[in-house]
Each structure stands twice: as C-alpha cells, then as structure tokens.
C-alpha cells in the first residue's frame, strides 16, 4: 500500500523504499574500521524522508543529478534510490565526461568521488572546474578515507557536503533538489 501526497507528489512507499535501499547499502559498505553510526544513519534517513514529504509540490519537474565516479557500481544502491524517486541520474566515469555533461546539460546537483585516474584529488579539481565554468550548483564529495579527513571543511573547498556516509548523501540530495 502507498499513500500519495499531493496531486503530483511522491508516494510514501517510494520514499520509504528508497530510504531502505540507502540503509541496506550503508550496512554493506560499513566495515570494522568504519562502523555505521546507527543514530546518524537514522537521523539522515528521517531528514531525507521528511524533506520528501514536506515538499511534494517541487517534485513535478524532473530533477537531474550528475554523478562522477570511475567505479559507478559502488553507488548502485544510492543511484537506484534516487531513480526510484524520479530523479534522472546521469553517470560519468571520468572528470572529462563530467565536464562534457555539464557543458551540454543542466543539473540540480553534482556528486563526485575523490580519486580518479590519473589524479588522487580529481574530485577537488572537478569542483574547482565547475566553479571556473561559472556553474552555481551544489557539489557533494562522496569519498571514503579523504572525506573522513576533511568532513566539516566544505567552505574551504567550495562544496556543499564532504562525506563518506551514504545516508548523508541521500539526505543532502533530497534537501537540495526538493528544497529549491
């Protein structure tokens, strides 16, 4: 059973299913060295669901997300969760592919990993290039070790979020896309 909010709103069952996919992905991504903070996971998922349900009028227009990662299969559960909510997710495997997509299409949010051949900090270089192109768009750096070392330093890098937590990515994307 699902409950639809608004005439063109989001179905609660779709939001809950997307949140469940993110939680499952977080559990599979966690390891002994980086255990899941259950409270933070629950809070981020709840915030994402709350944003989805409190702003159904903004879902009428298809939202677009550009995700740059040389190993896109690492993000399958999040990509599926966003697509289940009606977000058009465009995947790029290189910085050049990401730049080409941004030059020819418009997006609501960009997610980038950090390390891509040949550069160890390709995500930062990509964020800088986006700003040089004059594009004002939320940028999320979603990386494991690098993010754990730089979390909270978003303003230093001109990005919206630095994280290694999939539930934080989920929550931030929904906030940025549905809150605009």
Automatic annotation (TrEMBL):
Would you say which domain of life the source belongs to?
Bacteria
4-aspartylphosphate (modified residue): where? 113
Tell me the first and last residues of the signal peptide.
none
Annotated keywords = Phosphoprotein
Against SUPFAM superfamilies, the record matches this protein to:
CheY-like
Q: Note whether Phosphoprotein occurs among the keywords.
A: yes
Q: Which residues form the Response regulatory domain?
A: 64-177
Q: Which Pfam families match?
A: Response_reg
Q: What's the protein here called?
A: Response regulator
Q: Which organism is it from?
A: Paracraurococcus lichenis
């Amino acid at each position: 059973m699902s409950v639809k909010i608004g005439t063109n709103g989001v179905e609660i069952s779709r939001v809950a299913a997307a949140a469940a996919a993110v939680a499952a992905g977080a559990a599979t991504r966690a390891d002994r060295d980086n255990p899941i903070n259950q409270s933070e996971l629950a809070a981020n998922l709840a915030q994402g669901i709350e944003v989805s349900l409190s702003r159904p009028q903004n879902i009428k227009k298809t939202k677009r997300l550009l995700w740059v990662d040389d190993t896109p299969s690492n993000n399958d559960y999040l990509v599926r969760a966003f697509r289940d909510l009606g977000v058009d997710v465009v995947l790029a495997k290189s910085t050049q592919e990401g730049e080409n997509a941004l030059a020819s299409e418009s997006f609501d949010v960009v997610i980038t990993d950090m390390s891509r051949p040949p550069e160890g900090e390709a995500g930062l270089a990509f964020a800088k290039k986006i700003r040089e192109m004059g594009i004002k768009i939320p940028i999320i750096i979603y990386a494991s070790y690098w993010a754990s070392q730089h979390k909270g330093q978003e303003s230093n890098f001109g990005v919206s979020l630095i994280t290694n937590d999939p539930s934080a990515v989920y929550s931030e994307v929904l906030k940025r896309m549905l809150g605009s």
